[in-house]
Write a structure and sequence with these properties.
Elements (H helix, E strand, L loop, with lengths): L18 H11 L5 H9 L2 H14 L1 H10 L6 H9 L1 H18 L14 H4 L1 H12 L5 H19 L4 H28 L5 H10 L2 H9 L3 H10 L5 H12 L3 H8 L10 H5 L12 H19 L10 H4 L12 H12 L3
Helix pairs in contact: 1-2, 1-6, 1-9, 2-5, 3-5, 6-9, 8-9, 9-10, 9-11, 9-12, 10-11, 10-12, 10-17, 10-19, 12-15
Amino acid sequence: MKEFSFAQTDLFLPLRLGRTARDTLQEFIDIDVSTGDLARILNDNQAYHDLFFRFVSKKTAKLEKTAEGENPEPASPTHRLVNLLGMLGSRNLILALRIHRLAHGSFPVAEGGEVQITAGDYLARALEAEESFQRNGLEYSETAYAAGVYFDLCTRLYGRSGEMKKLQPYFDRTWQRAYRTGVVAYLLAEKLAGFTPKYALAAGMMAHAGKLHMAAWFDGYADFETALDSNKDLPPIGRLLLERDKFGVMSEEIGSHTLRYFDVFKLVLPSVRYYREPYCLKGVDANNHKLAVLLWLADAMARSWRLPADEKDPVFAEWTYPALGSLKIRRTLLMEVMKRAMTLK
């Protein structure tokens, strides 16, 4: 088994997006992003500005002529670049460039100086999550996108080792579980008082982030965790203890620690860390304790992914946790949320 220590910061540093990518992602999460915001971010980093200019000049020559005719006096050359590629296209390009550099150590520049990259190849999960939220009329698609960026980044980083072909099915299952947990947490937070759906969504999707690192660093973890998760007789705390006993660390310990580096989600770090041990936050951090309890429930519902037939359905036993009483959730509401989550297009 591989040795692991939280002191090995080199394991986590690749998750630092860097100022340009981080600020871009944060601006979109905050929703009020404008062309001026992206122009400012690009102007603050000459390297990205230059790459952006090369990419746009090559790919949008026809659009450039049209834009010049419609707006002969753009606010600035950088505003013009962003307008040519579009706000979302600009965001995707900036993040794809950063992911490529983190994964390969350099930007995707050909010998002739041309920037060669297809952003969608680097942001498959992020775009999938965003499009799903938009298609289903859900709010905070930008937050879902940002969580997807984390999973896309990890997939690229671990893909360098050549192990990704073997791990890909597990990474895909983990992403599906993370997405489902995030959706259920979001829908629950919409129905319950005292929660912010945006943070519930972020925490729900990031609750499973640590599994990616565990699978990449520890031989046999993917099979071990899959088998544990399939055991309906084991409660979450039982799976947690067996995981810690075998590997010396738990997935949520690693997952929450990485949020110190992928810091756009740093606010939900405590609830991610203790979502299978909510009692650790009781009396210490009331808001995160409440959110951790919600995550426990959302994860249980995402794990079963089954719609109860009625209020006496045995599946409710899989969702039971003593602290849930404090949330005062009716079983009919849980059935409503589960039906909505399972019927999203």
